[in-house]
Amino acid sequence: MYREQILDHYRHPRNQGRLDQPDVSHELDNPVCGDVVRMDVRLTDGRVSEARFSGRGCVISMASASMLSEEIQGRSVSELMALQEADVFEMLGVTLGPVRAKCALLPLRALQEGLSRLE
Amino acid sequence: MRANGIGYSTPPARLDPAALRADFPILVREINGHPLAYLDNAASAQKPRCVIEALTRFYSHGYSSIHRGVHTLSEEATAAYESARDAVTAFINAPDRRGVIFTRNATEALNLVAAAWGRANVGPGDRILVTEMEHHSNLLPWRRLAQEVGAELDYIPITDDGRLDLDGLVRRLTGPVKLVALTHVSNVLGVVNPIPEIAALVRERAAAARIVVDGAQSVPHLPVDVQALDCDFLAFSGHKMCGPTGIGVLYGLPELLKEAPPFLVGGGMIGRVERAEATWADLPARFEAGTPAIAEAVGLGAAIAYLGEIGMAAIWAHEQELVAYALEQLRGLPGVRVIGPTEPRDRAGVVAFTVAAIHPHDLAFILDQEGIAIRAGFHCAQPLHEGLGLGPTARASFYLYNTLTEVDRLVAGIERAQALFG
C-alpha cells in the first residue's frame, strides 16, 4: 500500500501550508485517530487557482491531502463536488478497507464540506 | 492477598501457550502470508473451540426462549442460562447470584448503574469521582448523570509514571461524594489499580459513596474476587474473556439493585402489569428486560469453565512474563516511548507506545502486512491521551495464547517500519 508515490508525497508534501484570505477554508478531524486536515482553496472564475493543505495525520491522510491539492488545480466547484471515494482511491493507486478509507477520504471530505458552504 | 487484590493461595502452574493455541481455531490463519500474531486482546479476545461448540450445541439441541415456557426445551434452556449465571457468580466470588445481571457488555452494565441506581441516588450538589485514565464507557455515563441531576464530576489525577494518584484521591474525598467510578486495569496504561486499598480509603472518608469498578480489562486476565475488592458494582464484557459478543455482566450488591428503579422496561422484568401500573420482578430478572442473549450467556459459561480449568492465576503469571519481556524489548528500541509504568510491577498485559515520526496507523498497517494485529488510535480514552499530551498511540495487548516469539515479531516489525519511514 505504501507505494513509492504515496511515500514521496508524505516525505515531500506539495502545497502544504495556509492561504492568505482563501475563498474556502475548512478543517475536519477523525475522532478515532485524531487526524486533522484543513483544506484552503482560492477560486478564480469559479475554478481552483490555488490550494493548500495543513494538519497532521498518518501517511495515507497526508499523502491524500498532498495529492488532492495538486489534483484539484483548475477544476470547477461542481467538478470537485462530484468527486467520489473511487476517485481518491484511483488517485492514491490503492483500494482501502473501511477503516483506512476514512484516513484517505478526510481531505476530500474537508474540501467538499468547505465548498458546500459557499454561496 | 496483595494490595492490588491479586492473591494466590498457591503459586500458579505455568501454562503452555503453544498447547493452548490448538484450542483456538482462528490462530491457524495466515494473514498476508504470515502466521497470525493476535495482539489486540484488550479490544476483544479470540474464541476457543469449546465456546464455539457450546453455541452450536445449544442452538442445535437446546435452544428455546426461557423463563416462561413450560415445555421441555424451555425448561432446559432456562436451566442452561441460569447455570451460566451460577458460573459467573462463582468466577467473581459474588456473595449472591441475584446480584449478577446479564447485560450486552460492560458499557451497557455501566449505563445501567448510571441510569437506574444513579438517577435515584445522586442529586444536585453531590460529587461523582472518576479517574483521568477511564475508558469513555466509564466516563460518559457519569458525565451525563452529573449533567442530568446537577451533580459535580471530578477527576482523580494520575502520577507522572502513569499510576493513580492516591493522594489526589484522598484530597477529593470531601463533600457529598456519592460515587467513585474507576477502572481496575487501564486499557492504555496497563496499570492495575489497587482497588482494595482505594475502597478502604473511600469507606473511611466518604462512607456514603458507592464504588463502581470497570472490570473489562481485569476480569479476563487475573483472579477477581468482588468481596476482596470491596466494590459495590463491577462491570465486564464476555467477548474480552473468550466468550461471545453481546453478553456482559453487571455485578451489584443486591440491596442496592433492588432499591433501584428498572433500567429498561418491558417483558420479562415485571411482577404484574395492569392498565395503569406495574410491579417489577425480583432480581436479577428486574434488570433483564426482553428476551436476553441466551446462547451468548451459555457461551460465556463455557468460556468461564475454560478459563477456570487453566486457572486465572496461571493466565496472569503468563501475561506478566509477556509484558515484562515486551517492556524490556521496547525500551531497547530508539524512538519508542512506552505509555504508563515502564516496570512490570502491577502492570497487566497492555502496552501502549509511540514510535517517533511514525503515525500509529501506519505502524499498525506495516505490522498487519506481517500478520501482526495491534490497535492504533485513542483506544476510547481520548481525555487520558490529551492529559498526557499525546496524539494517538499504538497498543499491543496479550492473552493466554500469546508467546514470547510473537513479542519478538512485534519488535522486528517496529524496526522494519522505522527503516521504511525513517
Short description:
The complex is a heterodimer of chains A (119) and B (422). By secondary structure, chain A is α+β, with helices and mostly antiparallel strands.
The run of helices and strands of chain A is HEEEHHHH
Biggest interface, chains and residue tallies: A-B, 15 and 15 residues
Mean pLDDT of chain B: 94
Enumerate the strands of the largest sheet of chain B in spatial order, edge to edge or round the barrel.
4-10-9-8-7-5-6
Indicate the proportion of strand residues of chain A: 15-25%
The CATH superfamily of the largest domain in chain B appears as Type I PLP-dependent aspartate aminotransferase-like (Major domain)
Textual characterization of the structure:
The complex is a heterodimer of chains A (119) and B (422). By secondary structure, chain A is α+β, with helices and mostly antiparallel strands. Chain A has a single domain, classed as Alpha-Beta Complex (Sufe protein. Chain: A). Chain A is built from 5 helices and 3 strands, in the order H-E-E-E-H-H-H-H. Chain A has helices at residues 4-11, 59-71, 77-81, 85-92, 98-116, and strands at 24-30, 35-44, 47-56. Chain A is globular and about 35 Å long. Chain A starts with a helix and ends with a helix. Chain B is of the alpha/beta class. Chain B folds into 2 domains: 17-47 and 311-421, Alpha-Beta Complex (Aspartate Aminotransferase, domain 1); 51-308, Aspartate Aminotransferase, domain 2 (3-Layer(aba) Sandwich), CATH 3.40.640.10. Chain B contains 14 helices and 17 strands. In chain B, helix 5 (140-149) links the parallel strand 5 (127-131) and strand 6. In chain B, helix 3 packs across helix 10 (294-310) and helix 4 (106-121) runs parallel beside helix 5. In chain B, 51% of the residues are buried. The model of chain B is unreliable at 1-5 (pLDDT under 50).
